[in-house]
C-alpha cells in the first residue's frame, strides 16, 4: 500500500506521513479505515518499527488518525471526507516541482510535459 | 529520560603515538539501534571495544549499565552480547558443537530462539566450521552473540558477508531485540542502506572522533544540497552559511550545507538574487559530503 525508500534523502517517517496524508486527502483512505499495525508495516518493509510509530503518532497529533484500544490505528472521522482542493493541491507541490525540474534538465518543454502527464493520467485512471 | 545503558565521557585512546579515539562522549539509551559508520581505520572497532572495557582508555571513562566498563560484574557482563569483526569460532568443531559450548556459558540461553533462527537463516550445523563459507560463519557468529538475549548487543560489521535475504532477516531480528525497550543494539556496517532501514540513531566516526551523532532523521533533514541560480554571476568565494562544500559555476552554485533550516530558504534566495532548490540527501551521500 505504501512505497518506502530507505535510501532516499527524505526520512522514512516523512515519506509515510506524506503518503497517508495524500491518501486521506484524496479520499482513498476513508474515515474508519484501519491501517496496518506498526509491527506488520515494519516487517513488510524491513524498517525500524520506531519509524512507523513516529509517523502514526504525528498523524494522530494532526487528528488524521486515531488510536483504538488494543486495535490498529484508524482514519479519524472528519466533518468532510475530503480536504479542500487548495489543500490537496498543496500536497502535490513538491512532486510537481521535482517533475518540472527534471523536465527542464532534459530540455523538455511545458507542452510536451503536460502531454506526458495527460498520457500518464489516462494510463493510471483506475 | 531513562538511564543510559552505555555512557562514554571524553574517551581518548592512543596506540603508541597514534590517536585512535579522540575525546569521544556518547550515550546509548534503551530502545536505541545505533548504526556506526566510518571509513576503514576511522576508529569504529576501537570505539566499540573500548566502550565494552576491553582495554583502558588513556583518558576518560565508560560506564555500562552504571558500572565502570573496566570493572564490570559477572551479572553485567552476562547482559552483553558482542560480535567481533573477526569471528572467534572454533574451526575444528561443527556448528552444533560450537553452539553447545557457547550456550554452556550462559544460564539463560534461549534455545527456542536459536533453533528458530537456525532454521530461518539456514545455518549449517553438521559441517566443520573451517569448511563453511564466510557468510555461513557470520550467521553462526551472530547466533553466538545473541542466543542469550543480551540487553546490550554490540556487533562489529555483522552483515558484510551476508546475502540480501539473510541481511533482511538479520535486521528483523535486531528489531525484535530492540522492541523490548530495555535493550539496545550498537552495530557498525559499511552497508549504508541497512543502517538507513534499521538505525534510529547514527554515529559517524571520523579520525577517532564522533564527527556526527544523533537521530538519522535529523541528520537527513539537516544536511542538504542547495542548488542556487542567481540572476548575475556569483563570486568564486561565495559564502553560504554552514557550507561543507561549495562549487560555483557562473551564475549557478551547488552547496552542501549542514544544520539546514527550511525557514532560511527565502532569505537565502533573496540574498543571492535568484532561486534556490533544496535537494535532500541519502545517508551515503551525506557520509561522502562529510568526508570531503
Summarize it.
The complex is a heterodimer of chains A (126) and B (292). By secondary structure, chain A is mainly alpha-helical.
Structure in words:
The complex is a heterodimer of chains A (126) and B (292). Chain A is mainly alpha-helical and 126 residues long. In chain A, 56% of the residues lie in helices and 7% in strands. Chain A has five helices and two strands; from the N terminus they run αααββαα. The mean pLDDT of chain A is 88. Chain B is α/β, with parallel strands linked by helices. Chain B has two domains: 6-219, 3-Layer(aba) Sandwich (Rossmann fold), CATH 3.40.50; 223-290. Chain B has helices at 44-51, 74-77, 95-104, 111-120, 134-146, 164-179, 192-198, 216-222, 265-271, 283-290; strands at residues 6-15, 18-28, 33-38, 59-64, 67-68, 80-83, 152-156, 184-188, 201-206, 209-215, 224-230, 243-249, 252-257, 274-280. In chain B, a hairpin with a 2-residue loop joins strand 4 and strand 5. The A-B interface holds A 6-14, 42-43, 45-51, 54, 97, 101 and B 31, 33, 168, 171-172, 175, 178-179, 192-193, 196-200, 216-217, 220-221, 224, 277, 279-285.
Amino acid at each position: 500500500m505504501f512505497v518506502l525508500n530507505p535510501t532516499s534523502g527524505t526520512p522514512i517517517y516523512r515519506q509515510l506521513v506524506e503518503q497517508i496524508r495524500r491518501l486521506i486527502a484524496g479520499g482513498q483512505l476513508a474515515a474508519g479505515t484501519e491501517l496496518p499495525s506498526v509491527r506488520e508495516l515494519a516487517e513488510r518493509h524491513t524498517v525500524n518499527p520506531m519509524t512507523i510509530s513516529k509517523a502514526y503518532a504525528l498523524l494522530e497529533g494532526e487528528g488524521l488518525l486515531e488510536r483504538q484500544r488494543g486495535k490498529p490505528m484508524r482514519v479519524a472521522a472528519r466533518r468532510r471526507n475530503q480536504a479542500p482542493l487548495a489543500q490537496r493541491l498543496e500536497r502535490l507541490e513538491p512532486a510537481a516541482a521535482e517533475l518540472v525540474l527534471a523536465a527542464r534538465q532534459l530540455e523538455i518543454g511545458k507542452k510536451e510535459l503536460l502531454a506526458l502527464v495527460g498520457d500518464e493520467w489516462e494510463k493510471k485512471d483506475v | 529520560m531513562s538511564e543510559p545503558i552505555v555512557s562514554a565521557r571524553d574517551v581518548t585512546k592512543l596506540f603508541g603515538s597514534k590517536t585512535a579515539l579522540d575525546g569521544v562522549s556518547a550515550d546509548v539509551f534503551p530502545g536505541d539501534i545505533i548504526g556506526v559508520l566510518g571509513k576503514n581505520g576511522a576508529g569504529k572497532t576501537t570505539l566499540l571495544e573500548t566502550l565494552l572495557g576491553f582495554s583502558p582508555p588513556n583518558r576518560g571513562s565508560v560506564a555500562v549499565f552504571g558500572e565502570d566498563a573496566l570493572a564490570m560484574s559477572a551479572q553485567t557482563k552476562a547482559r552483553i552480547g558482542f560480535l567481533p569483526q573477526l569471528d572467534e569460532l572454533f574451526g575444528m568443531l561443527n556448528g552444533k558443537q560450537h553452539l553447545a559450548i557457547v550456550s554452556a556459558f550462559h544460564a539463560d540461553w534461549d534455545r527456542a530462539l536459536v533453533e528458530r533462527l537456525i532454521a530461518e537463516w539456514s545455518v549449517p550445523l553438521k559441517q566443520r566450521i573451517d569448511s563453511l563459507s564466510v557468510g555461513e560463519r557470520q550467521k553462526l557468529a551472530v547466533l553466538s552473540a545473541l542466543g542469550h538475549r543480551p540487553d546490550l548487543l554490540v556487533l562489529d560489521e555483522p552483515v558484510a558477508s551476508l546475502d540480501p535475504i539473510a541481511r533482511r532477516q538479520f535486521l528483523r531480528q535486531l528489531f525484535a531485540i530492540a522492541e523490548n525497550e530495555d535493550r539496545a543494539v550498537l552495530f557498525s556496517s559499511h552497508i549504508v542502506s541497512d543502517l538507513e532501514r534499521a538505525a534510529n540513531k547514527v554515529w559517524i566516526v571520523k579520525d577517532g572522533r564522533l564527527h556526527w551523532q544523533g537521530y538519522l532523521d535529523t541528520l537527513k533533514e539537516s544536511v542538504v544540497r542547495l542548488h542556487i541560480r542567481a540572476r548575475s554571476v556569483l563570486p568564486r568565494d561565495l559564502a553560504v552559511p554552514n557550507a561543507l562544500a561549495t562549487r560555483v559555476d557562473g551564475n549557478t552554485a551547488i552547496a552542501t550545507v549542514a544544520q539546514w533550516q527550511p525557514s532560511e530558504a527565502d532569505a537565502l534566495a533573496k540574498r543571492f538574487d535568484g532561486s534556490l532548490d533544496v535537494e535532500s540527501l541519502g545517508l551515503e551521500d551525506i557520509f561522502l559530503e562529510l568526508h570531503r
